[in-house]
Amino acid sequence: MSKIRLRTKFLLSLVAITAGLTSATLLIVRYSVQKQVRRSIRDDLDTSVNTYRSFELQREIALTHAAELVANLPLVRALMTTQDGPTIQDASENIWRLSGSDLLILAGRQGNVLGMRFRGSGLEVPIAQDLLRRSLEKGEPRDWWYAGGQLYQVWVQTIYFGQSSNNSIVGYLALGHVIDTGAARDFGNIAESEVAFFSSTNVVASTLEPQQQADLVKQLWRSSDAVTGSADPQDVQLGHERYLARTVSLSHGSPAISLSVLKSFDKASAFVSELNRVLLGLGFLTVLAGGGLVFFISDTFTRPLGVLVNGVHALEQGDFSFPLDTSTGDEVAEVTGAFDRMRASVRKTQMEQRQLEERLRQAHKMEAVGRLAGGVAHDFNNLLTVIRGHGDLLLDRTPADSPMRHHVEQIQKASSRAAGMTRQLLAFSRMQVLQPRVLNLNDIVSDMSKMLPRLTGEHIEYVFQPAADLSMVKADPGQIEQVILNLVVNARDAMISGGTLTVRTQNAVMTDAEARKRPPMTPGRYVLLSVADTGHGMSAETKAHIFEPFFTTKEVGKGTGLGLATVYGVVKQSGGFIWVESSPGKGATFEIYLPQAVETTADAEKAPKAAALPRGSGTILVVEDEAGVRELACEFLKISGYSVLEAHNGMEALVVAGRHTGPIHLVVSDMVMPRMGGAELAEKIQSVRPGVKMLLMSGYTDYAGKEGAKAVQAVMLAKPFSQASLVEAVREALEGNPAASPHGSSN
Question: Is 14:294 a contact under the CB 8 Å cutoff?
Fold first, then answer.
């Protein structure tokens, strides 16, 4: 041994140590991997169970909300007071569809089933009645029902007549979701596991094969842990495959509902054998090559590897710019290069994800603010109608030399300004009642070109570049003028020291590739209206907020922040898209894309309006739930020579129309009222007064669409209205020419 060279001794020692370490490593790795696999499966099973509990909680919340909503519907309360089984059964189908549930039961005060709807088959009324009464005896709204081979998760809601505090119970409502094979499969896909739902020891729904279900029942229910729910998973053998199963109870009492989640242990640990072979090969190679490598490892190998490891650690901390060394040209350099490319790809993906998340948050915020603005403007329109209307009456009755006339005129001016801001809010929220017609943008801009240079000032050069063969668009010309005006004013304010303002029109065909560059634009044929300036431009942060209402970069008191928000709302409501190109110091270009119109100007022309009559005659029924608006409309009509009947809502209007002995020539009704709205009244009043004409009033387009005035061929009147606009709309309705566009108020 003493004659053996030191290098040989070192190599033999290295071989012996390597062999021993390799064998020990194989045993330790095998044991650790199997233990880790079992722990991982247990964690996965716990996660799957927690996922289902969260899913069950969300479904329970949804059932609770749906049951409360349905139980509080006036139709349901009124229906349940009848206690008439056939009537309730007939009406239950619409209620069932509204609830979105798989099971709906309407029961009387004693728990007797009066109406039942469900998907599937096998559930009979006596069985459902017995299950409902058991649930009522438990006193808990949440329950599980098993009947007809189907498992339902059920929520029972008491139906009160009036407030629940009065304890005036008229019946019970039960909503349920079915737990079937499809539901089990959906949850199994989410949990990436096999699942089985049990009622007692019967498999109700499962992702397993029938034979596997039988094996599972035999092995699972032999242990009391399966019933009580053990913290540790159970080993089960289904056919030739081993599984780990976790069972949890889903109900208290009878029936005993439980869920079993299974993970294949064999599939999870299949890589262990392959790992053993790989480790043996590596150990053998280590024994042969270890001696040589120990003499030739140098700094040229360890340094780039260390740099790569540092780069990995830097990436874990979110540093994507850590410098990497790829100059050595060896395998480590290739791995480093691949890692660098992967790092760049991850960084690009994260940036795109952040942009998408920001865009989604911005869209949700704009929608929420828009709905709020539209709702406020709608309510404010009723107040403005009363203020402006009574101001008109006061102005007509105040002599020109009266000292009070100035105060009345100030009221009119303030209300006109308020009406203008209301229109801006409605335009932003896309709820304004528009008057679209087919038009040529060149004509609109040309008509405004005389006024725009005076608006911008002499220090700004105004240039208009119209397209010669520009296609038509369908839009509200007044709103398009407002859009152009707002953009020009915005451009003027961006060029304090002067510059060039260019307005350009052209036809544009947007391909899929071009549309993707301007989300959320869709491919198609458009007419492009662009307004470009050479001002100071905008940063990316400012561009992200320019269309938000009340956002402005101007000084306090020099801007409302509604200009570009109005532009955004009008363009969106007109079916178009808006895009902004800008950067600091390079000006800004606003591009508005409006869909090309199919109609021509000749098709869209309207007949000229009839000449205004000095006074009217006839009987008019005014239906409006807002007392101030109703009284004002009646006053306007009486002054104009009409006889007026009043009603607070649609139901009362039917009664008044039926009782009145004389003729009723016209019904003037608000679109949105309690109990019965204007559109429904327009249909039902024909049975009381056949052929009676309609004039509908609305503050914004949520209630002035196809299902409103167009569906009943009625003239539309926008709020706030003046005496002139109301009388004009009444005369048009009486003459039998329903307008395609609504009447607005005069300023």
Answer: yes
Structural domain that includes position 421: 363-428
Whether 640 and 721 map to the same domain: the answer is: yes
Closest CA to 78 of 155, 163, 159: 159
Mark whether 596 and 729 lie in a shared domain: no
> For residue 747, is it within any domain?
no
469 and 386 in one domain? no
CA distance 501 to 498: 9
pLDDT at 440: 93
| Angle at 267 (CA atoms; ends 266, 272), nearest 5 degrees | 75
Q: What is the mean pLDDT of the chain?
A: 80
Shared domain check, 90 and 60: yes
**Whose CA is closest to 420, among 454, 460, 388, 386?**
388
Q: Is the pLDDT of residue 528 over 90?
A: yes
Task: Give the pLDDT band (50/70/90) at residue 419.
Answer: low
Structure tokens at 665: 């020539």
Predicted pLDDT of residue 373: 61
Is the pLDDT assigned to residue 742 strictly greater than 70? Answer: no
Q: Looking at residue 231, what DSSP letter applies?
A: S
Q: Which long-range contacts (CB under 8 A, 24 or more apart) does 589-593 make?
A: 589/530, 589/531, 589/532, 589/533, 590/487, 590/490, 590/530, 590/531, 590/532, 591/528, 591/529, 591/530, 592/483, 592/528, 592/529, 592/530, 592/567, 593/508, 593/510, 593/521, 593/526, 593/527, 593/528
Residue 685: the pLDDT is 93
Instruction: Looking at the structure, tell me whether residues 598 and 449 fall in a common domain.
Output: yes
Using CA atoms of 374, 379, 381, 386 in order, give the dihedral in degrees to the nearest 10: 180
Q: Which residue has the tokens 């020539």?
A: 665
H-type alpha helices, 297-330 = 299-316
Contact present, 474 and 441 (Cβ < 8 Å): no
* 55 and 124 both lie in a single domain: yes
Q: Is residue 536 part of a domain?
A: yes
CB 698 within 8 A of CB 672: yes
Listed in sequence order, the residues at least 6 apart from 141 whose beta carbon sits closer than 8 Å to its beta carbon are 64, 67, 155, 156, 157
DSSP 496-515: TT-EEEEEEEEEEEE-HHHH
Structure confidence by residue, pLDDT tens digits, 532-584: 999 989 888 888 778 877 677 666 555 556 678 778 888 888 889 999 999 99
Hey, which bits of 430-557 come out as E strands?
437-439, 460-465, 473-475, 499-510, 524-533
Measure Cα distances from 592 to 365, 419, 577, 722 in Å. 22, 26, 6, 33
Give the confidence band of 601 by pLDDT, cuts at 50, 70, 90: low
Give me the residue label for tokens 């199919």: 598
